[in-house]
Amino acid sequence: MAFNRSLPLRAIFLSLLLACSSDDEGEPMGPRAVLTAESEFTDGNGNTYQTGFEQVSGNNQDPFVTKLDAAGNEVWKLTYESTPVDGRGVMVSVDDQEIPWVVFSVDGGSNEDDYIDRKETASEAFDDAYMNSYGRGGGPKVTVLAQLDPETGQIKQGTFLTARLTNGNTNTLNVLGIGFFDQNVAFEISSAAWPPGLGSSYERFPDITDEDRIDGAFKIYYEMDRNLSEIRVAERLAE
Hints:
Layout: H1 9-20, E1 40-42, E2 48-57, E3 60-68, E4 74-79, E5 87-94, E6 100-106, E7 142-148, E8 155-161, E9 163-164, E10 170-171, E11 174-181, E12 184-191, E13 218-225, E14 231-236
Antiparallel strand pairs: 1-2, 2-3, 3-4, 5-6, 6-7, 7-8, 9-10, 11-12, 12-13, 13-14
């Protein structure tokens, strides 16, 4: 397998992991996205997107994304959640159309207008999403996957991504890397609770048991349509 030497080491590691993994039938997985997990990414026009969080109090963080032009000038900087619950910008990437995509983490437990699905969003950004809300049992950290408007920084499309406990309550799901393949947005996750399977709403990953955990967590490779309305590929990683 040949690799682009300009890719970060994290991207090379993830692509190796996916190439060596098997699906639930025991067959090698086909071609998949090369995933990255960077907090800074430069597009083909020289624009750089940076994500992270501001420590606004001793126990509270707010997530941000900054866009710089090719000369290093700030084009915009937005804070996407400023409620008492924690939020962080985790990673950012850019697709083949020079559209930025960001992975945020956010806690539940807020209905305020400054929550991540309302603060810096275009109209209807979450309306047709795979998951348009955090779900029930607020508290554990989950993921929000978002496509941003490169001109304004607002969330154009967004979805929550969560695992669930046996009782149906929301539980933590962490995205480990993001990429693009065959018109889909791709990502790998780790979750201690039950991860989702295919479809346009949460359904527990089929035929998965505690024995499928790797170092205490489920590891799954996913692809979603770029409207973030449906999981089209869901394959358990064997290692």
